[in-house]
Design brief:
Elements (H helix, E strand, L loop, with lengths): L1 H14 L5 H4 L1 H62 L5 H43 L8 H21 L5 H10 L1 H18 L2 H6 L3 H30 L22 H27 L2 H6 L2 H14 L9 H21 L5 H22 L15 H33 L5 E2 L5 E2 L2 H18 L3 H35 L8 H25 L9 H39 L4 H5 L3 H14 L5 H22 L11 H17 L5 H7 L1 H11 L5 H11 L5 H9 L6 H17 L10 H4 L3
Antiparallel strand pairs: 1-2
Helix pairs in contact: 4-5, 4-7, 5-7, 10-13, 12-13, 12-14, 14-15, 15-16, 15-17, 16-17, 16-18, 17-19, 18-19, 19-21, 19-22, 21-23, 23-25, 25-26, 26-28, 27-28
Length: about 750
Amino acid sequence: MEDAREVAINKLSELLKHPDDLNSKVGPLTRKLAKEKASIDAQLNSGVQSQLDHVQEGLETLTISSRNINRVKENMRNIDKLCYDAQSMITDFPRINMISQVHQNFVATQAKVRAFQELYQQLDDLEEAFVPMQHDIFQPHEVLLHVHYHLFKLEEFRDKTMHQARDSPHDVIITLKTYFRRVDVLSDDFTQHLWLLARNLIPLVENNCGSTIVKLAKIIEVEEAADEKALAARQAQSNHQDLQGHKKWRLAEGNPRTIKSYRVEFYEQLHQSLLEHFEQEFVPYKEAEDWQGALDATDFIFNELELVFEQVVPKFPKKYKIFPYFVLEYHRHTYDLLNQMVQQDLDAGTILRLLRFVRDYYTTMSTRLGVTEELLEPQLLDGQEQTLVDEYLKLVRRKLVEWTSNLMQSESRDFVQRENPPDMSPDGQFGLSGAVDLFQIINQQIDVAADANQGKLLYLVVNECHKVMKDSQVFWKRLLLSELQKQLDQPEDVPEGFVEYVMALANDQIKCSDFANDILIRVPPIVDANYKSQVEDKISTAIDGYLQIAASAREALLEVTFGDIKPVFADLFTARWYEQPLIPSVIETLKDYCNDFAHLNKFIFDKLIHDMLDRFLMLYLEAMRHKNAKFHMDTCLEKIENDVRLSFNFFAKYTSVEEMEERFDVIEKVHTLLESNRRMIFVDYYTLRQAYPDVPLAFVENILSKRDDLDKSALKDIMEGIKAKAREYEPDANTPPTIFSRIKW
């Protein structure tokens, strides 16, 4: 009732979602539900009436059957009474009956004696026919049914004789057993031969002995029929014990046959033979603990099951269900094999091979044999694939951490101690071996996981590899910052070669980003669709991380480079600058470093030159604001032009003229502002502001205040006009920041 009420409430909540539905939907819903209820009631009434009619018919049939049984019983009693009464109507009936029994006994005794006389000759003939088959199961068994037929008759004769003599003296029983010993031996040998055939069904088929299997099935069917007849007689004996010994009811005496249960024994022999077959196939691999080899050796399972389906199944009656029996037997032995495997200390490769085998096993069973996973019980690994996956990931994690830790330790020692120069590739680029080694490890794990045909597992392995990549990135970032700080703080106390190793690190990180990009291209298409976007995100994040470290290495090279020339910029626009050229020394230093930077990856070198030019321009602009800077007109203008010409020519070796003109435009416009007269200065400021909206007014005021041709009064008037002009200017909000935004004012 509670469940029905809950269902009704849920249904109403779906139908009446809004308060207005009470007014608009209740009437139509009531009529609709009333019609549905009437229809369901009609169907139920019809179904109940039909069931009542069937029950009534069954009761009537039972009543009629009971009457017929009672009528038969009554007729049998009448027949028995008539027979008994008829005996008194025949003169000397007891004597006639006794003579008839004596004659029957004489005939039976004569037949028994003749059977005993012919017994050994029959046994000789049967043994002669049976021995060749017994020695070679692949020999044509043309007389197998003949031997079984006559042996079956001899067994019947033996069983009947021993049953009739059951109340005889002990010495008679012993004599009969001795007499029938050869029958017993031949029967046992023949039975063992049948089970030998049963244990070799597949070899028999492979040797074109299919007719032998048909005869085996026929013999089992004959023996089963005899068992059923004997069991029926025993059931009758059990049900009619009051008739035992009555001369008219021989069935009540039972059947002397020993129940053989050949069909049950046939399946038992099959089971035992398949168990031995699997043991024989896998013992060498178990002894060698070669579990991957054992999995590779399982192809015979599918080949033999195909053979059973095509060659063995047609030779047995359908009721034997030979193919399902073989499938389940092979499956259970496979299940036992895998259970033995998971109890061992498996390596990562074997775990993956095992997981792939399970997936391929079910697929092959379905595609080649038409057997679905639901029919294969018990489930392989008992559904504990996730436990194996976790164990594999734990092994992968431990191995990755171990390998990468050793790799990082070796690489970091070389990076810090710098006893030898870094490796150099044939194209002259510095490098570390870490990138290649790291991604050999990572790609190996990914390839193995991909071969396992487990979409989620591949994602999990990629996730572990991503962690390793991120850990290595964090490690290198920290180490780079630490070594850079030492280089800047105590350049005389640190080993030489810092610049070379930073270049090697930068090149290494670009290699890593390329390797990671290769993974990004090949892994998402083969990973489980549910994890595709996550894999792409993780690998993309790793690529960005490598590029960030390459950028950090580039920044470190800039810091070292400009650390040597930064003091020179402090003297620009001072008395020393007017006395002697300073920029040539800066350009020479940059030239020396750029010659060294030729060992960089082309991508990083171009970026470095771009950043170097930015840094140069920023320092040059910053120098104009220095405390001691002075602009002596018109000398300073000429010297600035010389500085620009020298630096322009240097950077033009590595950058296009168009880009150079664009980049040096800021110096040109500041130069124009410096040389501008009072009437044009507002126009020149506007031009500067148009091109560089983020130029600070403080910067403009600062450089103008350092001109020696402007007194304070003039400067004040100029700045008031410029500030007024600045207030009129409304820059576009979408305008990107310029070089002025990167200068720390």
